[in-house]
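Researcher: Hi, I'm a grad student and pretty new to this. My advisor asked me to get structures for two proteins we've been looking at. I'm not sure of the right format, so I'll just paste the first sequence and hope you can take it from there.
Model: That works fine. Here's the first sequence with its structure tokens right after it:
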Amino acid sequence: MALAGCATSGDQDPGVHGGETTMAPPTISPSPTLSAPPPGVDGSDDAIEEVLEEYPELDVQPWAVAGGDALDTAAAVVAVYLDPASATWWADLSALLSPQAVTVYSLVDPAVIPAGQVTGDPVVLQTAGDGMLATVRVPTSIGDLDVLLTRATAQAGGGWEAEQINPGTT
């Protein structure tokens, strides 16, 4: 009596040898490369501008551009922060803070913040997150202050917001 579906010793599956299953090595194909722009895209500045107009989310600011904005924002944050006697202190400061920082700094009594002035140019100490975070040191009349800045987006117009203002450490 023969059983249907069973292989005899002469009809073995080519992937099975001596009771072990073997697998053929994977085939690797090379990644495609573009030797020319896709159809309809000529690679010119005009074509790039047209794409950015249609898809503004692709307009990412490089650090070379955004870095200057970070320095300006840090200096503005510190200037406002060190003017706690101003009648508009909280309104001015909260406009420069991230939503999370607004929650934290809303609990700060401005009477405990020493008055001071920015006395020099801010300096970037560290960047991270592909230019989405920056720590900037701002020299002041009461000592250096470090400002942690963040951007919600790297797109053009994605402004810097302060997360933390701390005494500078050496």
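Researcher: Oh nice, that was easy. Here's the second one.
Model: And its structure:
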Amino acid sequence: MNKHVAGLTIVELMIAMAVIAVVVSLGVPHLPGVVGNNRLTAQVNTLSNHLAYARSEAVKSGTPVTVTSNNGAIWQDGWTVWVDTNNSGLMDAGEELRIGEAFGAASVLTPDNGTDFITYNGTGALAGNPVTFTLCNTSSPYGKQLKITGSGRGRLADSKYKCP
């Protein structure tokens, strides 16, 4: 009776571990860039979703809806979406619709025109000039740009933006 034992020899196991080590060593250096790009994508999508929400609320209610930065033109510190129900031009109690959370110290979100607010009129168009938001992160040399047209539509720029 011939017994055959199935399994790996130590040499086969060492070769398999060496192959795995090579594959991992090729992939790990790219991991921070991938994580940074995913973070940028999530952050720009958050802003885009809040702006689209503000626009839809303006159309739905037929009244202006404003998105205001929580810290001047430093948008990465968060923002507030609110509807001016009493036409005072100021956010009063009960007018807040949604709050955008701060992105953190590694991200910089800047509008090209330095504005600290965006207002959509009752038709969903911008009440002011078009604006382009640029989002950069310290973990990536490239950033994202979100362009808001005069009609109020937002779109992500097609090409990678080289951060300064």
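Researcher: Is there anything I should tell my advisor about the second?
Model: You could mention this: The helical segments are 10-27, 31-61.
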